[in-house]
Amino acid sequence: MDAIALLIAATLSAGTILAIAALGLLINEKSGVVNLGAEGMMLCAAIAGFATVVHTGNSWLGFAAGMAAGAFLAGLFGLLVIWLNTNQYATGLALSLFGAGFSAFVGVGYVQEKLPEQTRHAIPFLADIPFVGPALFRQHPMVYIAIGLALGLIWFLYRTRAGLVLRSVGENPEAAHALGYPVRRIRLAAVIAGGALCGLAGAYVSVVYTPLWVEGMIAGKGWIALALTTFATWRPARVLFGAYLFGGVTMLQFHLQSLGVNVAPQFLSMLPYLSTIVVLALISRNPMWIRVNMPGSIGKPFYPGA
């Protein structure tokens, strides 16, 4: 039972990274913009957050620095694809490549650095409940913030006028423009907000999840988060479920190894990516289901004067 509780706790922690990043990308795609630069933004945010904590000793300042780094890079991406009408897919890939190289360059001096001792978090009384306490109530606050973000995004998208406007921009920007809405500015705001969340996820990796800096430490999590938006058919609640599902698959490899299961470690390491491919392949068998839920203008440029 203790092993199961530890697996659940590790799943929540690992899934938090994917959940926060995927929710950010979901905001992007609800506005009609596809950002393939999540991996690069998360890497830059990871080194920004880690360096900030090294120099200040405050993890929350590290999260703020990661969000700022992600928002800044997303803003540059938004200016290129929304105002200069560059190709969204090529620009996003360029951002990922830039982020990988730039973070490696900046992070050279931080490879051997160590963060201050982390505070152990626990919800009073609830953390002492057998099995449930260690599994659910001894998590970093960011785990609970990720759940709150998903609930807040559901409310924003489906219960507020601003959320309705955002979805209308993603469905039919020409109609939204005809009604007087500033489509480009709305898309840019969505892209920056999504970048900030990707940055928060990146900072969480280097500050809490694996409190160190190593080149390329995001290790494909940005791409999995991108795939999660399709897996979830652009629904925040399903994003949260998918994040914990993939997080569980990721952590299962370590628990199987600790239990002495005789499986090649290379096979266990590829499980998260293999499961991503399998899920996307299964979803793709029903293109009508994707088409019904997918924002109508996703990936398509908007020309106000056209």
UniProtKB/TrEMBL annotation:
Cellular location(s): Cell membrane
Pfam families in the cross-refs: BPD_transp_2
One GO cellular component, as annotated: plasma membrane
Bilayer topology term: Multi-pass membrane protein
Keyword check for Membrane: yes
Entry keywords, A to Z: Cell membrane, Membrane, Transmembrane, Transmembrane helix
Transmembrane segments: 6-26, 33-54, 60-84, 91-111, 141-158, 188-207, 213-232, 239-257, 263-283
GO molecular function: transmembrane transporter activity
Cross-referenced PANTHER family: ABC TRANSPORTER PERMEASE PROTEIN (PTHR43370:SF2), SUGAR ABC TRANSPORTER INTEGRAL MEMBRANE PROTEIN-RELATED (PTHR43370)
Name of the protein this chain belongs to: ABC transporter permease
Organism: Polaromonas vacuolata
